[in-house]
Design goal:
- With 87 residues, the protein is an all-alpha fold.
- It has a single domain, classed as Orthogonal Bundle (Rna Polymerase Sigma Factor, Chain: A), CATH 1.10.1740.
- It is 78% helix and 0% strand.
- The chain is built from 4 helices and no strands.
- The longest helix is centred in the N-terminal third of the chain and has 22 residues.
- The radius of gyration is 15 Å and the shape is elongated.
- It starts with a helix and ends with a helix.
- It comes from Romboutsia faecis.
- This is Sigma-70 family RNA polymerase sigma factor.
Length: 87
C-alpha cells in the first residue's frame, strides 16, 4: 500500500477513528496520531479493499490499554499472573 492510499484511508475513516479515540482516552490527539503513524509503519499489512477500519481499531486500542495498565499499576500483576500460569 502506498502513502497515497493511507491518505485516502485517513480521509475516509479519520473521523470514525478520532471519535473512537475520544472514547478511549483523554489524550485523543496523541492516540489518533499514533494510530495512523502505526498504520503507515504497517501499511504492508493493511488491505485497503478489506475493511481498513477493522485494522485501525485494534491499532488504536492497544496503546490505550497499555497506558491504562501502566497508570493503574497493573503491568506487574499481569506479568506476574502470566509467569505463574506458565509454571
Amino acid at each position: 500500500m502506498e502513502l497515497e492510499d493511507i491518505e485516502n484511508i485517513i480521509s475516509e475513516y479519520g473521523n470514525v477513528i478520532y471519535k473512537f479515540c475520544i472514547k478511549l482516552t483523554q489524550n485523543k490527539e496523541d492516540l489518533y496520531q499514533q494510530t495512523f503513524l502505526k498504520a503507515v509503519e504497517l501499511r504492508h499489512k493493511l488491505d485497503k479493499n478489506n475493511n481498513p477500519r477493522s485494522f485501525l481499531v485494534p491499532v488504536a486500542i492497544i496503546p490505550s490499554f497499555i497506558t491504562c495498565f501502566i497508570q493503574n499499576g497493573l503491568c506487574e500483576e499481569i506479568l506476574f499472573r502470566g509467569f505463574i500460569g506458565k509454571n
